[in-house]
Write a structure and sequence with these properties.
By secondary structure, the protein is mainly α. It has 4 helices and no strands. The protein is 80% helix and 0% strand. The radius of gyration is 11 Å and the shape is globular.
Amino acid sequence: MDERLTKIVRLFCCLHGRDVYVKAYQGYLSGRLLNKTMINAEAEELMLSKLKMELGINAVNKMT
């Protein structure tokens, strides 16, 4: 799981429209939380921590 998320974050670093990805991820995450369809909470936390390293704490704190 960690390897897969690392690859996603590497791909994210290559994007020009990072803010579009962040908005979409935030929307999907909120949908999963509201509908209680989240499969693995650990994976969500790991993804958010990886995004914190790339974007900074302030940008990701809105999602958490």
